[in-house]
């Protein structure tokens, strides 16, 4: 350091005080950390009369290097000021805790550079929506915080959150090959939900956590959920999940898949369910990733498979229907997965061609053992379905490299099919599937108009609440009992139990 400073002084002797100050403060770094050292440096430079340098240091300390947005430090200062102002004027301050759904997958599959570009793009879109006086800050990772002062009612905060989420989707969703970006937003208000900066952050974070438990891509306002006894982070959720898995309490519900032309059920999808005694039904979108992190996914996956195959083998329709089971990344990568599945199917006397394994697009395109495993499954006669198609972060051009039999168009596209652009996208997927000789399912069909459009563009199989939500094994059996034999009728409506 001394040598570096000596050289610097030789190069720009006029800046000697700066070099000396730097030497002194970098030395101090050994003993100081984080913000403190920036403060010391800033003060030191001010004392030396170097105000511009001091301002620059402050700027650096208070802003995020990637997006240029205020960071936590500046945010907290701003919240304090907004709260003071709200106290004086009798208004409310809205805090929106924003998280990008599936960001980790994008980062993992497309690399950090794309991840960074996405964070910058999202920050620009959000920033463009805000008024003067609002503040957008980067909280860290893929989390952002928006502070909206001067509110009169909680519903204003929700409306702003909705507008931000819609704008990000509109601006950053330009077609099939792009990642589908959605937001989860937790909202809390001063003084309704908390009266200090710290407490407000905690409540907004709880609301955000609740969003994720609801399957992401939604907005939760703290005061709306408070009365529902939600506060997942207050309890040791992971302990509860581990206990539930050990006690084999993971259940399975079934949702019918319908032939688009005849209206007859052709398959059921098995969906894992967990009912926590205190918090009720917990979405698999929350507990499956949690089970993956806890190393419990093999156990969860096996319990689901065992239960589903057992139920299926007793339903009396195992030669007419197919059974779809979701398979997570870790399960698929396990070397014993294919053998275990074959044994289980043989034990229940279920033909491999009746078992459809639903794998997500991003997993299927990952390198490593995933593709190898897909080939093995295919060679063993199992059917492979590419779930949530279009939301993955892969290139369409690589689809032909995979051993898959069917693609499931994600509900995000199905929801948009009534718009011109949405219809074009679905049509493109259908043409692609036809060209590659793949089966095609649309999931998340909620009404007849959507079903009619999908049928018209050539989607073969339909799944969604319009035809039947996921239900228990008994209810599913009842549904199937009504569906078979089904009188043939022109066109069709939902086949209901
Ligand atoms: P998925 O495999 O894409 O399942 C479809 C999800 O959409 C299910 O959510 C289903 O309940 C929901 N859904 C079906 N029809 C409609 C509709 O008309 N409208 C709307 N809004 N939603 C509809 P669910 O059961 O919460 O599962 C979420 C995800 O969790 C699944 O998405 C799947 O990826 C994962 N998952 C579920 N069970 C398992 C499992 O046993 N193993 C693994 N690895 N993942 C599972
Ligand atoms: Mg699925
Ligand atoms: Mg899906």
Helix vs. strand class? alpha/beta
Order of neighbouring strands in the sheet with most strands: 6-7-9-10-11-12-13-14
Task: Enumerate the spans where pLDDT stays under 50 for 5 or more consecutive residues.
Answer: 30-41, 230-235, 486-497
Number of helices: 21
- The coarse overall form would be globular
Mean of all residue-level pLDDT scores = 83
Largest sheet: 8 strands, mixed, barrel
Portion in beta strands:
15-25%
Count every beta strand, where a strand is a DSSP E run of 2 or more residues: 14
* Unique ligands: ligand C2E, magnesium ion
Helix content: 40-55%
| Radius of gyration computed on alpha carbons | 27 Å
Kindly, what is the distance between the CA atoms of the first and last residues, rounded to a whole number of angstroms? 78 Å
Characterise the protein shown here.
- The chain has 497 residues and is an alpha/beta fold.
- Helix content is 49%, strand content 18%.
- The chain contains 21 helices and 14 strands.
- It has an 8-stranded mixed barrel, surrounded by 6 helices. Strands 2-3-1-4-5 form a 5-stranded mixed beta sheet, with helices on both faces.
- A hairpin with a 2-residue loop joins strand 2 and strand 3 (143-151).
- The chain starts with a helix and ends in a 14-residue tail after the last helix.
- One magnesium ion binds next to loops.
């Amino acid at each position: 350091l001394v040598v570096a400073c000596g050289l610097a002084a030789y190069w720009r002797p006029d800046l000697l005080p700066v070099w000396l100050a730097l030497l002194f403060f970098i030395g101090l770094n050994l003993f100081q950390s984080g913000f403190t050292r920036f403060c010391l440096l800033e003060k030191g430079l001010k004392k030396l009369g170097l105000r511009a340098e001091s301002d620059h240091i402050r700027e650096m300390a208070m802003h995020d290097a990637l997006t240029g947005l205020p960071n936590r430090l500046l945010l907290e200062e701003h919240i304090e000021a907004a709260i003071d102002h709200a106290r004086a004027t009798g208004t409310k301050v809205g805090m929106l805790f924003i998280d990008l759904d599936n960001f980790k997958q994008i980062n993992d599959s497309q690399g950090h550079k794309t991840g960074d570009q996405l964070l910058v793009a999202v920050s620009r879109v959000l920033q463009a929506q805000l008024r003067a006086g609002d503040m957008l800050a980067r909280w860290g990772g893929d989390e952002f915080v928006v502070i909206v002062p001067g509110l009169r009612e909680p519903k204003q905060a929700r409306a702003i959150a909705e507008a931000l989420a819609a704008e990000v989707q509109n601006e950053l969703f330009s077609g099939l090959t792009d990642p589908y970006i959605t937001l989860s937003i937790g909202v809390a208000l001063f003084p309704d939900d908390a009266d200090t900066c710290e407490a407000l952050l905690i409540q907004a974070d709880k609301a955000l956590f609740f969003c994720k438990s609801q399957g992401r891509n939604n907005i939760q306002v703290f005061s709306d959920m408070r009365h529902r006894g939600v506060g997942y982070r207050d309890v040791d959720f992971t302990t509860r999940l581990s206990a539930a898995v050990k006690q084999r309490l993971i259940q399975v519900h079934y949702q019918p898949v319908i032939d688009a032309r005849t209206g007859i059920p052709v398959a059921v999808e098995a969906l894992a369910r967990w009912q926590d005694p205190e918090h009720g039904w917990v979405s698999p979108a929350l507990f499956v990733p949690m089970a993956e992190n806890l190393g419990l996914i093999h156990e969860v996956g096996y319990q689901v498979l065992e239960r589903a195959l057992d139920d299926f083998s007793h339903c009396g329709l195992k030669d007419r229907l197919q059974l779809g089971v979701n398979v997570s990344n870790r399960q698929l990568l396990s070397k014993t997965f294919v053998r275990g599945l074959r044994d289980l199917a043989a034990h229940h006397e279920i033909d491999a061609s009746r078992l459809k394994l639903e794998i997500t697009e991003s997993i299927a395109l990952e390198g490593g053992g995933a593709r190898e495993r897909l080939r093995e499954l295919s060679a063993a006669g199992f059917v492979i379905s590419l779930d949530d198609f279009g939301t993955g972060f892969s290139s369409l051009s690589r689809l032909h490299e995979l051993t898959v039999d069917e693609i499931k168009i994600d509900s995000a596209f199905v929801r948009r099919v009534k718009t011109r652009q949405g219809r074009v996208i679905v049509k493109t997927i259908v043409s692609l599937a036809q060209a590659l000789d793949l089966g095609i399912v649309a999931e998340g069909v909620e009404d007849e108009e959507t079903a009619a459009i999908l049928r018209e563009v050539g989607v073969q199989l339909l799944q969604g609440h319009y035809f039947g939500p996921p239900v228990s094994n008994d209810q599913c059996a009842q549904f199937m009992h009504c569906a078979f034999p089904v009188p043939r009728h022109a066109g069709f409506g939902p086949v209901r139990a």
